Amino acid sequence: MNSFKSFWLAALLLVSAQFTFAQTAPTAKPSAKGATEQFQIKTSAVCDMCKARLEKAMAYEKGVQEAHLDVPSQVLTVSYRPDKTTPATLRTAVQRTGYDADDQTAEARAYERLPDCCKKTNKVHSDTGHK
Amino acid sequence: MQPSLGQRFSAVLGLVLSSAVACAQTTVVPPVQGQITDATGSSPLPGAVVRWLAAATTSATTDGTGKFTLVRPAHGAASRLVVSALGYQADTLTIGATDQAFVRVALRRSVALGEVKIEERAPAYSSLTPTNTQVITTRDLTKSACCNLAESFETNAAVEVSTTDAVSGAKQIQLLGLDGAYSLLTVDNLPALRGLSTPYRLSYLSGTWIEGIDIIKGMGSVVNGYESISGQVNVRLKEPDKAERLLFNAYGNDLGKFDLNLNLSAPLSKKLSTALLLHSDHLGRRVDRNQDGFLDLPLATQYNLFNKWKYKSEKGLVAEVGLGALRETREGGQVNFRPDQPRNFYGTTLATDRYTGFAKTSYTWPGRPYQSLGLLLSGTSHIFDSQYGIRSYDGAQRTGLATLLFQSVLGTTAHTYRLGLSYLHDNYEEVYKDGFIYPAESVQERYEREHRNRYERVPGAFAEYTYQNARNLTLVGGLRLDRHNLYSWVLTPRLNVKYDVTPNTVLRLATGTGFRTANPIAENSGMLVSSREFVLADNLRPERAWNAGGSFTQYFTVAGHPATFVADYYHTEFQNQVVADAYSAPTVLQIGNLEPGGRSFSRSFQTEVQVEPVKGLQAKAAYKYLDVRTTYAGELLPKALTPRHRLFANVGYATAFDKWRGDLTLQWFGQRPLAHNPGSHHEHGAGAAPTTLNYAPRYALLNSQVTRAFKRLEVYIGVENLTDYRQPDPIAGASSPFGPGFDAAMVWGPTYGRLTYAGLRFKID
Fold it and tell me: What residue numbers bound the domain in which B458 lies?
């Protein structure tokens, strides 16, 4: 039963790793303590693929409760915990994903890595081939 | 994630849709007009086909300035417009019923060195390729521990991975029930890991290096040579310009095996980028869980590195260079065996040095994205020394391959062709010593018996024509003619047809021939770990086979999510095969040509269904029927160790944004025939084989893995063989490994039972 023991050991390792990182991981549900605030960023996102990318990137940011991108208006609405993050941090996160955040331009390398359809040279499009 | 209907037509794309201007209601609905351009050069694209998704018969072709006019379908709702051109990724857009639309669409080139490239988000079964292609994505690869290529196929039903023997731990892939040697393995679309590297090749590519894997069943293109018989497995390594800046992976399991992987990539300028892929693994613990006195897995240490460069000019020139080096040592056998002091213990050792390099250069004519010229060069040096008990087997293979490839169109992009020349230089030197010295044999005779050299020089030419009517029919016909210095002319015809009965129903046919030179010792290296003597006929001829088959793919929706059903059947028939016969005489492995009047064939039927019943939950189930038989000494018998029936099921669940991912895979294997134990002739007398075959029992395996993703870090833990199933006696005659009954080659099940592992991946984009 040696392997069984090591299985639980490894399981414990994973759980503890999870615990260690819980502080940096965003919480999925709005918690009672700490109010939630909202703010909006105008981005350079142009399609549903951008939407999926940005919303996923936001989901992995500390203090973000919810993020929603409205593709036609290119506006990203973020609900966040002000005790955990700031709008400036989140704007940087948007840039690092490859998109402009308000008047700040996207990080060059991240932008390069975007699929062609997500590039700024495209106009906003509602192509269905992006899901 | 399976994209739905129109999405499959449009892979990814630079699309500019000038928003339609709503116009006053008129009684006459104007036709849709527009212009199609090339996304890279923004030049007009003549010959592109524009059609309605719902009314496939109405189509228009763009003129010399890329413009088209297309009448609308006769219904009120919005319609989907499909734009396609060969050499480009198709695109789909929605046009309102009465919009006075002028659309401008920039199509993205799909040409990556003349090969159609499959996007990261393509469905598992592509609807675009003319061949029956299944894609394993990066995301699929993270479903299993993925130390190396062998584990990459764990969550896939098409390819089977089997262990060659209970001592060396070498793993082999099988396609259509045929050994790995019959499927062509390509890395970045260049033939790789051929010949003498076959036995251990799956461990030569680390899972973290791999961007994706394309599995093509049946006959593929003639461009990659005449060798593939059962199919092709193409491994795409990470691209220097697209890969993560840093990816670090560490893995450990409870046998004591560790893996470390580090990928680094950097753009050096706007045009030049590089990636460095590093891998090391080590197993230093002697484990013998089944108490048979033999290590369950050999001690092994591997250092492996690959460096890839990519140059992309703005003017259509793309160059890629890759350089790789590998060093591996393995040591298996009895627990008390030490290579420096073998005493009376049985042991196996293997030391491998491998160097590879490739250079691919392609030039695409400006304004003519369908026309390109490519030069593909690759070279490999593979040298190994191995010892199996008293036998030794050393080898060196030096291969060089050059291919010049030109691609263009005939009139319109409906007719494309590829022409090329190739030259293969393949030099083999093998030394096999069975450990015996026969007094009657002269030194010269002995030298000739033990040394097997082969030098192949094969110039060849090929042509491939593709017809695509942009609606529902694709036809690829290829022919190649090679002049083999040892076997004279080799003609290889191949044909692939894809027909879309409806946009959601795809039929494919593939047929053609294949040719290869067998490397009988390397391909039967598992049998070296038994007391069977190798008896090689000295008139071995090359292997020739034809293969014909087809597939039926149906896309549909279940609970609002896309689902796929695939069924395929392939028949492979050998005109000649180098047959390794362990049935006829238990004490020897007779290797010779397929006997006159004998048959050797494989019939493979597979059906698979993939569904997503709830968002995030993906399930697939597959059934496979394999009938692989060969005439051995006048008797048509099933191939040893190949199960006739096999079931596969996989359930995967991912929470929103993939923060948690869980996977459970079930594999069930039916009975499989076994070769007779080499010691069994004592009971039956006179070396004649027993007349009935023994079969291994049915069994099932369960694997599971859970992954937790954080912003830059992923942590995973998994269990292979959850139920701890083991083959009771994987090594027959383990107590006297130099005796007549010793056989570690009849491995049909797991030897070391349950395996628990954990690992992490750290990534900086």
Answer: 115-764
Taking CA atoms, what residue in B is nearest to A28? Answer: B656
Q: Are residues B27 and B140 in the same domain?
A: no
Element (H, E) at B351: strand B347-364
- Interface check for A23 against chain B (CB to CB < 8 A): the answer is no
Question: Which residues in chain A are contacts of B272 at CB distance < 8 A?
Answer: none
ipTM for the complex shown: 0.70
Q: Give A-chain residues touching B713 at CB under 8 angstroms.
A: 21
Per residue in A37-58, pLDDT (tens digit) is 998 999 999 888 889 999 999 9
Tell me the torsion sign for CA atoms B220, B226, B227, B229: positive
> CA of B142, closest CA in chain A: separation in Å?
16
Q: State the best of A46, A64, A117, A118 to mutate against chain B, taking most chain B CBs within 10 Å.
A: A117
Q: Are residues B625 and B651 in the same domain?
A: yes
Q: What are phi and psi of A12, to 5 degrees?
A: -60, -40
Say which CATH number the domain at B41 has. 2.60.40.1120
Do B417 and B531 fall within a single domain?
yes
DSSP A31-44: PSSS--EEEEEEB-
B756 to B256, B321, B613, B703: CA distances (angstroms): 10, 38, 30, 10
CB interface of B with A, residues 240-269, below 8 Å: 241-242, 245, 254, 267
Same domain, B35 and B150: no
pLDDT for residue B686 is more than 50: no
Task: Encode pLDDT of B640-661 as tens digits.
Answer: 999 999 999 999 999 988 899 9
B120 and B172 fall within a common domain: yes
Out of A7, A21, A56, whose CB is closest to B710? A21
Give the gap in angstroms from C-alpha A34 to the nearest C-alpha of chain B: 22
pTM score of the predicted model: 0.81
* Cβ count within 10 A of residue B748: 21
Q: How many CA atoms lie within 13 A of B297 on its CB side?
A: 19
Helical segments of B393-494, H only: 443-450
Facing B13 at nearest CB: one of A25, A61, A129:
A129
The answer on B100 and B69 residing in a single domain is: yes
Fold of A37-125: Alpha-Beta Plaits (3.30.70)
The verdict on B681 and B643 lying in the same domain is yes
What is the tens place of the pLDDT at every residue in B539-560? 999 999 999 999 999 999 998 8
pLDDT, residue B469, reads: 86
Nearest Cα residue in chain B from A118: B14
**For range B221-240, the mean pLDDT:** 93
Provide the residue ranges of all domains of chain A, joining segments of one domain with +. 37-125
* B109, B125, B151 - which closes a domain: B109
B chain contacts of residue A2, beta-carbon cutoff 8 Å: 254
Q: Specify whether the CB–CB gap between B238 and B275 falls below 8 A.
A: yes
For B176, half-sphere exposure in the C-beta direction (CA atoms, 13 angstrom radius) is: 31
Picking from B91, B706, B753, the nearest residue to A129 by CB comes out as B91
Per-residue model confidence as pLDDT tens digits over B3-56: 443 443 333 333 222 223 233 333 345 677 788 877 665 677 777 888 777 665
| A129·B765 Cβ contact <8 A | no
Rounded to whole angstroms, the Cα distance separating B325 from B379 reads 12
Counting residues of chain B whose pLDDT is more than 90, the rounded percentage is 64
Q: What CATH number should be reported for the domain holding residue B702?
A: 2.40.170.20
pLDDT higher than 70, residue A12? no
CA angle B122, B663, B716 (to 5 degrees): 100
Query: Cβ B1–A110 below 8 Å, yes or no?
Result: no
CB spacing of B710 vs A6 below 8 angstroms: no
Domain boundary among B109, B130, B156: B109
Mean pLDDT of B673-680: 88
Flag if A127 and B91 touch (Cβ within 8 Å): yes
Whether the predicted pLDDT of B471 surpasses 90: no
Does residue B225 share a domain with residue B97?
A: no
* Number of domains forming the structure of chain B: 2
Mean per-residue pLDDT, B341-363: 93
pLDDT of B558-596, one tens digit each? 988 889 999 999 999 999 999 999 999 989 999 999 999
Q: Which residue of A has its CA nearest to B8?
A: A129
